[in-house]
Specification:
27 strands
Length: 778
């Protein structure tokens, strides 16, 4: 099923003209900012250090996956403008909080990055042509000045924004990949300028290196942004980007759509069938069934009538409701979820990507080798020969800095991400961040929300009780089709419910249609609060509550025992009577997904501990856990407590993945080391997750885990290949005998090796189970 179809078909609280959304935070002392231009976890570290060192800033929490920062500050000493301006000075963009404009800004950033890359490629190709001509013995007087212009044009043209970011980082004492690039680029420029006056310095080679490494840096930045933009585009197809509105009923009886932020307590709001309930409130008029599963986790629809309380974010199903808003703004359920998400984001364990962990040591290491080169050819040469060799010292130091920029390093992770993201997309998995690729290998627990994740999330007929020849007979599964009495019972019940709008009635009809039963009735009448009555095949059929069909005292002991067993597992019982006689009972429940038990078993085989969370009581939770094979479960978990469970597991040293789909899952998805949202879930869940499953099958969790681990292995291999040449070249450059020509050879060789490794073979061979694919993986 494609993303647009899923977006249209899912009940995620976004039908009609309303969207459930969480607005950005700008409270007194707290500021939530959407940030553009972040490409790796070194960027998050740069932002945290730069803002954290500002006077008046208490704490900075940066999320690379969601491209945002949550800043806690002293309003008496800092203003939101100053914080945003600091980000801009670092070279990052501050995006619009509006989701539509934020997506448009991200696409604009990608177009700018592509344009800069194309300029860099053009300059590099021109430089390469001149170098090739020189190697072939050709020459022209304009070669040298053109090489100077190409080098200066690349560093100060397409590479200008990198220079600005490096300067601001260096001014704050931060060493990152931008600083390393500029050390190499300016070493190339300095070596080239010295070469104009010193024959021992190959000027053209130095200028060419400055051009090439800047272009490679532009390429790695564009590749990272491309991965993130593609993920954002896929998410955008899942999200309904209409403004969040409510249908306000005015005193004179008219109606108008207003932003949810304008609704006040006491206002009257009308909600039609199929629409989301925009605010917390109480029902003034009308009756309906409301799907609260994505808000509370309760799978079965809830009847609502005058005086009943409704929760913003739940879905109105069959009737029109007139509500009085009771809790809005900071007091509403969605605002509470927003605060829980903020808290989870602030307490989420940080992840330093492998590439950035290496760079933390590599950048100072290169600078140290540069300093060593100067010492060797000044102090060392003076001690040995009695004379310092300043020319050789300068050449060696510049060669170290030129050799020190590993072009393939910037591509090692993005290429593995592009490859892994492509494989994941073919499996219906959207990887939203590079962090997710790395964390999968460290996971110890996979936490599943029950409703809509391990279960189908909607009412399904799971069992029938029919009268046999001599006694009542319980029938379930395929037997409901094979046993004639059960088949006849379901055909009569589905016929009576054919015109019904009630969710339980629709569940019966859908089951019958899926199994090829004829669904038709000659007449139909709904009895609110009781059930339906219809004429089916000449028989007067009634389907509904047992209190309506037969007094409890009149039920046989065998029937009463069966009803109690269904209640123990949170199943709803529907009675069916024909011509005034009770002929059978149907049990309707949120059924477990067929593949759930196999997924749990495979995860356990991979060494992971599956955990289930549910708001149901312990008895119901135990029954579902036993059915799917989960040993560890938490029952009676309130919506706001799911993130606490995840935090508790993390506090014990665990690395946790959370799989969910509802509004109430969003804080836990944010808190988890890897949040995995079902694509048919709510906007808030999808936006809080690191990974989105674009398909409904639960086995996609295994695909995501497998591809994540294999992609990390590719990243490790790429880093080894990237550093082979530089790891040898940097120490050799200290000797002062390594020409920049060899830096270009190292660049070409390492980049080629990384490209071949990244796109060679398959991460998840066709037809191979994830557990098999991971044997022997890193």
């Amino acid at each position: 099923m494609d993303a647009e179809a899923m977006a249209r078909g899912r009940a995620r609280g976004l039908a009609g003209e309303c969207e459930v959304s969480i607005l950005p935070v700008e409270d007194e002392g707290r500021l939530q900012i959407k940030i553009g231009g972040m490409s790796c976890s070194f960027c998050t570290s740069t932002i945290q250090k730069a803002l954290g060192r500002m006077e008046g800033v208490r704490a900075v929490h940066v999320s690379l996956a969601h491209e945002e920062a949550l800043i806690e500050y002293d309003p008496a000493r800092r203003t939101p403008y100053e914080l945003r301006e600091a980000l801009r000075q670092l070279g990052y963009t501050v995006r619009d909080a509006d989701k539509v404009r934020a997506f448009e800004e991200q696409r604009a950033e990608l177009r700018r990055a592509r344009a800069l890359l194309l300029w860099g490629v053009a300059f590099s190709l021109a430089a390469l042509a001149i170098m090739a001509a020189r190697w072939l013995g050709l020459g022209a007087f304009w070669f040298q000045p053109l090489m100077i212009l190409l080098a200066l044009g690349t560093v100060f043209g397409p590479g200008w924004h990198i220079l600005v970011m490096a300067a601001h980082s260096l001014r704050r004492g931060i060493l990152n990949q931008h600083v390393l690039l500029e050390f190499g680029a300016f070493a190339g420029l300095a070596g080239g300028l010295l070469g104009l006056f010193t024959p021992t310095f190959p000027a053209a080679d130095f200028f060419a290196v400055a051009t090439f490494i800047t272009t490679y840096h532009l390429l790695s930045g564009w590749a990272s942004l491309l991965v993130r933009t593609r993920a954002s585009e896929a998410v955008r197809k899942l999200l309904d980007l209409q403004p969040a509105t409510a249908r306000l009923v005015e005193a004179e009886g008219g109606e108008r759509d207003v932003p949810i932020s304008e609704v006040r307590p006491g206002d009257r709001v009308r909600v039609r069938p199929g629409e989301a309930i925009p605010v917390d409130g109480s029902v003034l008029e009308g009756s309906s069934t409301v799907d609260e599963s994505l808000v509370t986790g309760e799978p079965m629809p809830v009847e609502k009538g005058p005086g009943g309380e409704v929760i913003g974010g739940s879905l109105n199903q069959v009737g029109t409701l007139l509500l009085e808003a009771t809790r809005v703004g900071e007091e509403s359920f969605l605002a509470q979820v927003a605060r829980q998400i903020e808290a989870a984001r602030a307490m989420k364990p940080g992840v330093l990507a492998l590439v950035d962990a290496v760079l933390e040591w590599y950048v100072p290491g290169v600078l140290a080798f540069g300093g060593l080169a100067v010492l060797v050819w000044t102090l060392g040469a003076w001690l040995v020969t009695g004379e310092a060799n300043l020319s050789r010292a300068a050449f060696a130091a510049l060669a170290v800095l030129v050799m020190g920029y590993p072009c393939a390093l910037g591509m090692a992770s993005p290429l593995a991400m592009i490859r892994g993201g492509g494989e994941a997309a073919r499996k219906g998995v959207l990887m939203r961040s590079g962090e997710a690729f790395q964390v999968f290998k460290d996971l110890t627990h996979v936490v599943f929300d029950k409703t809509g994740t391990l279960t189908v999330g909607k009412p399904v007929v799971v069992e029938a009780l029919v009268r046999g020849v001599e006694e009542w007979q319980a029938v379930h599964g395929q037997a409901m089709v094979d046993v004639p009495e059960a088949r006849a019972l379901l055909r009569l019940a589905a016929g009576a419910e054919a015109a019904s709008e009630h969710p339980l009635g629709r569940a019966i009809v859908e089951w019958a249609l899926e199994h090829g039963l004829r669904v038709a009735a000659d007449s139909f009448a709904a009895q609110p609060g009781r059930g339906v009555a219809a004429l089916v095949d000449g028989r007067r059929v009634r389907v509904g509550s047992l209190r309506w069909l037969a007094p409890p005292a009149a039920l046989e002991a065998e029937i009463s025992g069966w009803i109690r067993r269904q209640a123990d597992t949170a199943r709803t019982v529907v009675g069916v009577a024909a011509d005034g006689e009770l002929i059978g009972l149907l049990a309707v429940a949120d059924a477990v997904k067929p593949e759930a038990r196999r997924v749990i078993a495979d995860l356990r085989a991979l060494g992971l501990e599956p955990v289930m969370l549910t708001g149901d009581d312990r008895r119901t939770a135990r029954a579902v856990a036993a059915e799917v094979g989960v040993e560890t479960f938490f029952a009676g978990v309130l919506p706001g407590a799911k993130a606490e469970v995840v935090r508790e597991l993390q506090a014990r040293g665990g690395r946790v993945a959370m799989v969910g789909d509802g509004i109430n899952d969003a804080p836990a998805l944010t808190q988890a080391d890897v949040g995995i949202a079902m694509g048919a879930g709510t906007d808030i869940a999808i936006e809080s997750a690191d990974v989105v499953l674009m398909v409904e099958r639960l086995t996609a969790v295994l695909d995501a885990y497998t591809i994540g681990r294999q992609s990390y292995r590719k990243t490790v291999q790429n880093l080894v290949l990237a550093f082979i040449f530089n790891g040898i070249g940097v120490p050799l450059a200290v000797s002062g005998l390594v020409s920049p020509f060899w830096a270009m050879v190292a660049m070409a060789a390492s980049v080629s090796a990384v490209l071949l490794n990244s796109f060679g073979g398959r991460l998840l061979p066709r037809g191979e189970a994830p557990t098999t694919a991971l044997r022997g993986a890193v």
